[in-house]
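Batch manifest, entry 17 of 40.
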Amino acid sequence: MVKNYPRFSTGAAPISVAAKDFLAIVNQLHGLVDDRKLAQFHQTEFLLAGYDFATGEMYGKSIRYDEESNLYKRFDLGGIKSGQVQSTVGFAGDCYHDFFEGLGKKIALQKTELNYQPLETLNEIISRQAIGSTIGGNPQIVKVYRHRNFLPYAVRQNGKADVTLFGRPLLEYERTLYPIVTLDRVNKEDFVHYPMGASPRKHTKPNDFSE
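Output type: structure tokens
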């Protein structure tokens, strides 16, 4: 849809308009499916979020199946208060209740504004999963800025040297220039490693994964 629709590919359409058209396409596909039990519509959910340049505000919706209308609809993402600041957090998939329960406890304990607590909570859930679980692997992290800019982050799992990018482990000969986060060092000084230079005063080689 994004590639074939000029307004989306050039960024000329606000994200709210993109959400409306995406919803129309999903419902068209929904209408073409014969075996609705096999399709498991009630288990399929999309999260759509970003900045709306038309309003200047953050836009976030959950697009999921509504049994009463037998259609996919847009729903507001959940709000959460942290450090007296209201924030929005979206979550789709298994362990929904475990995630928000763990996030709520972490926020109550830390009493600070929302920052990396959702990542910490997600990593804790992943770490508890047994072999064969439907949840696993390293998180995929992308920081989204205004005006369609974004920055992917590579991830190093707790106590391991292997680095993953978009959920895929980098091969031995592969290198990344994206920032690398170490999941068990959240909010610590060495939490984020910059292959192009950890700070203006300390530069590292582009291929160096060391701390």
